[in-house]
Design a protein that fits this description.
mainly alpha, single chain
Length: 136
């Protein structure tokens, strides 16, 4: 540690190895982001397929309810058949599964970022230095 009157130490010169290290770090970050984009795309595709299936189940439920209340004088008191009950269970399941996949996608993103921070963390903390001034 330097005292208040002592000037900071000059910065070491940047070497070719330092530049290659920075290039390597940058390429690792780009590769990691490309991996994340790929994983996110696959997860989003899975979620879209589940949402489509959820829409189909809702349509099937609507048809089952329409069949059940067709010709009934009191539609609110009509008992639903087994197909409508199954559709309700499927709708609940698919809704929970979509929520889970979305939260899992976010957890995966946080995990990817945490691993990147841990693997690319500098080995030592940089000490403040002052660039060398050209000598006259």
């Amino acid at each position: 540690m330097t005292s208040p009157g002592t000037p900071p130490q000059p910065c070491p010169r940047t070497t070719f190895g330092d530049l290659l290290g920075n290039l390597r770090t940058g390429l690792l970050v780009v590769a990691d982001e490309l991996k994340w984009i790929w994983l996110k795309g696959l997860r989003s595709l899975e979620i879209r397929q589940m949402e489509k299936r959820l829409d189909e189940e809702r349509a099937a439920l609507g048809k089952a309810v329409a069949r059940a209340v067709a010709g009934a004088e009191e539609p609110a008191s009509v008992e639903l058949d087994e197909a409508a009950r199954l559709c309700l269970k499927q709708i609940a399941f698919l809704g929970e599964e979509i929520d889970y996949l979305r939260s899992e996608r976010e957890r995966l993103r946080q995990d990817v970022l945490a691993r990147r921070r841990a693997s690319l963390a500098p080995e030592d903390t940089a000490k403040p230095c002052q660039p060398e001034s050209p000598e006259e």
